[in-house]
Amino acid sequence: MAVVVIVVIVVAVAIGTSKSPNHSPSADVKITSCAVDPTTQLPLARVEIHNHSSKASTYSVTVEFDARNGTRLAEGAALSLTVAPGQTVKTSAGGLDQVTQKVTCKVTKVNRIAG
Asked: Checking CA distances to 28, which of 6, 8, 69, 88 falls within 20 to 30 Å?
């Protein structure tokens, strides 16, 4: 019976140490800057995508531009094709609605399609 207990403990330790960090598609994307262009009054978010998956992937990213009180003022999107495993790309998502105030940016949706 002691052998069975030892085997169970070894299996539990092996499972606990073999887990890798969860890299969901949204964990691959971060906003590096967020501003409103003073000339066009269009909001723009600079986005960095790092492919943590094991396959080349296409990313579509949706960004929301909000007023300081949380009201959504605009929305934009970015698309990056064939991002290699481990590769980092920089792109931008621009809103189509003119904004006359400072905004905050947040990623609202990320799709990662392998292939």
From this structure: 69
